[in-house]
Amino acid sequence: MVVVTWRGRGLIGPCLDALAAQTRPHRVLVVDNASTDGTAQEIAGHLVEPQVLRLARNAGYAGALAAALPQISTPFMAWLNDDAQPEPGWLAALEQALDNDDSAAAAASVLHTGVGTVTSIGVALTAIGYGRDTTSAAPFGFCGGAALLHTGALRAAGGVPASLFCYYEDTDTSWRLRLAGYQVLAVPGARVRHIGGASARHGTPAFHRWNERNRLLVLLRCAPASVAARELARFAALTLLLPWRRHHPGTPNFTLPLRLRVLTDVAARLPTTLIARHRIGRRATVPRAAVWSTWAGNPDPHFLREVR
Q1: Does pTM top 0.85 for this prediction?
Q2: Containing domain of residue 253, as a range?
Q3: How far apart are CA 132 and CA 143, in angstroms?
């Protein structure tokens, strides 16, 4: 299993403790995103003695997973945040679920706060292409904070989208697995205590920039062309109208500088994104429109504000 950490001192130790208590044999690879806060010393002093891949720079969660993938020789690859603490039967439940279903390539965990509140059983796809945590027993995709994937299926689907840096790597991978004809399972017995947002706080400008940019990039990579074009045009139109709107939500994703930065980022990545779209389309066995029509649901009220 692969644990990604960045400035994870105080988090990585309890995570490794939880992995040491797993009932299923496993290997642990920790990818350290160039931490400088004592994370490396905490890892080195842990009894688990995991294999460590220390990167020269912070490559983000997606980049760290992509760097780890060539070193994985096991049939399964687990993705785990350093702020996640799986319960002892977590890995066994995920492996059994995938062993029992040849049509599935990924298994999602039940993430909870530790006091009984479930925060995620996977990722839902909204009507405008956002990936959001859901507690539905039949999610579109898995939450990358704690999941298990078939290594071969992941490689065949194009691996981990390192260029996304942070956020939506799970939604993008779920898209590509669905396009390849695979299922994504929710596994009730695979429970994980998850702090959430420990590295990049939700609600910050950085979070909103990555969230908006990566939603558009994933749609351009994976969704039907009409959907991707519609959402990109909608985002651009609303951005241009912001200076003339008297009222708009006060969140950072509705500030003009951030939205212009998102559009600049998307424009700079457009050539490589379209090349990736072509490759994804060649691998697909299920039409993009079929995946979209099956899984794109109604957005939450938070997202309806942008539609209006």
Answers
A1: yes
A2: 205-285+293-307
A3: 9
